[in-house]
Amino acid sequence: MKISKEQKLETQRKIVSAAADLFVLNGFDNTTMKQIAREAGVGDATIYKYFANKDKLILGFYDTRGADALAEYRNTDDLESFTFAEKLQLLVDTFLEQLMADREFVELSLKQIIKSPITLLKDELEVAKSYKQELTTLLSNLDHDEAYPDIPMQGMLATLLTDYILGITFYWMKDDSKEFSNTTQLTDLSIGIIDSVLKSGFINKAIDMAGFIIKTHLLRGLSSGGGLLNMMQEFKDTLAKQ
C-alpha cells in the first residue's frame, strides 16, 4: 500500500521525537537506532528508510521542526497584512516555539554538531533551504513597498537572515534569564536594526556589520549577557541618526 506524504511526515515526527527523548535520557553514544525504532513504534528496518544513522536523525529533527514552524507561520491569520519586521519576528518565534519542548535535546544536539561539524553539516539542511526561499520571497515583496529602496543581493541577504535565525537559536540556548527575556530583547533590537538597515539604503555596509555580529557573536554562542545587547542598542541608535 502506498504511503501518503502526510503519513511519511507523521512517521518522521514520531521517529525524531523518540530520538530526542532517548538521546536526552541515555546520551547520544548510548542510544541505538533499534531503541529509537521501538520507542517510535516502527520496524527496525523501517527507521533506516527515513534516516540512515543517528547523525541524520539529528539533522532530521531540525528539518521536521523547521517544516512544522514554517507551516504554522504560513497559516497565520492575516499574514499578508503583517509588515516585513512582523513577519521576520514571526519566523523567529514559530521556530523557537517548535524547539521549546525539546530544549534539552537542542542543547545536546548542538554540542554534537559542534563536535562533528564536517560530518553533520557537509550538506545544507533542508530547513535552511526552505527558510532561505521564504526570506527571499519576503525581500522580493519589498520591491513593491515604497518604504524600502531597491534591495541588492537579495539571495545573499536571505542566506544571512537564515543564519540570523540560527544565531538567535544559539543565543536562546545560552539564555538563563527569566522567560528568556534577554532573547526577546535581542530579537526585538536586532529585527529593528535589520528593518532600519533595509529602509536606510546602506545595505552593503549593513551586511558586513550583520555578518560580523552573527558569525562572531551569535553563532559562537559566546554569551547571553548584556554585552551583545548593548552593542545592538548602540548600532540601532546609530542607524536612527542616519
Automatic annotation (TrEMBL):
Tell me if DNA-binding is a UniProt keyword of this record. Answer: yes
A Pfam family assignment: TetR_C_23
Q: Which residues bind DNA?
A: 32-51
Q: Which UniProt keywords apply?
A: DNA-binding
| Keyword DNA-binding assigned | yes
GO MF terms held by the record: DNA binding
InterPro entries (UniProt xref): DNA-bd_HTH_TetR-type_CS, HTH-type_Tx_Regulator, HTH_TetR, TetR_C_23
Where the record annotates domain HTH tetR-type, the positions are 9-69
Name the record gives this protein: TetR family transcriptional regulator
Species of the source: Saccharophagus degradans
